Amino acid sequence: MGYLLALESSCDESAAAVIEMETGRPAASVVYSQIDLHRRYGGVVPEIASRDHLRRMPGVVEEAMQQAAIGWDSIEVVAATRGPGLATSLLVGWTMAKGIAAALGVPVVGVNHLVGHLASLGLSPDMPDDSMSLPDPLTSCGPTVILLVSGGHTALVLNQGLHDRRLLGQTIDDAAGEAYDKVAK
Question: Domain ends where: 121, 152, 176?
C-alpha cells in the first residue's frame, strides 16, 4: 500500500502526516506548536516562526514516519501547504517537501491552506475504515453555504460536493478571521 506524506507550515505549527493512499486514513500525525514561543510577543512573529520551522520540521517529519512504521520507499506522493500563510514559514515546508520528493523520485503537490480547512469539515475521528467510499457529509442535506474565517481571510463558499465548491464572495480589505485571531489573543 502506498502513502502520502503531508507537511504543513503556514503559520506557527510544524506538522506532518502520513496518509494511506488507498483508504485516506491517517497512519501518523505529528504537530509541533510554537504557541509558547510567540506568547511573549502577543502574537506570531513571522521571522521567529520560520526559523523555528527550520529547526523543528525535520524532527516532526521523522517522528511521523516512525509513528507510521513505514520506510521512505512507501511514500508515493509528498504534499505541502503552498499558501496562503506566512511567506517565510510556507517556504520552509514547501522546500522540505520538494527536497523529500526529489530524493524519493515522487511527485510533490501544493495544497491551498483554505481548501484544507474546507475539506476538514467532512472529517470525523470515528469515521469507518471505508470512509473514502461514503458520500460527502456536507452534502447529505443538499448544498451548503460555508463561512470560512481563517487569519487574513473571510469568505462565503457554496459547497455542493467534495470537489464542487464555488467562492460566493470574500473580503477585500480587513478580514473577520484577523479580528477573530486578535480577540482570541
Answer: 121
Residue 123 dihedral angles phi and psi, to the nearest 5°: -90, 150
Give the mean pLDDT of 147-166.
Answer: 80
Separation between Cα atoms, residue 60 and residue 15, nearest integer Å: 6
Confidence of residue 134 (pLDDT cuts 50, 70, 90): very low
Residues with Cβ within 8 Å of 97's Cβ and at least 6 positions away in sequence, in order, are 5, 7, 78, 79, 80, 108
**Residue 184 pLDDT greater than 50, yes or no:** yes
Residues 6+ apart with CB under 8 A from 33: 12, 13
Q: Into how many domains does the chain fold?
A: 2
Torsion angles phi and psi, residue 172, rounded to 5: -115, 0
Q: Verify that 115 and 154 share a domain, yes or no.
A: no
Instruction: Identify whether 130 is part of a domain.
Output: no
Residue 96 gets the label, from left (phi > 0), alpha (psi -120 to 50) or beta, of alpha
Q: Please give the residue range of the domain that contains residue 159.
A: 144-184
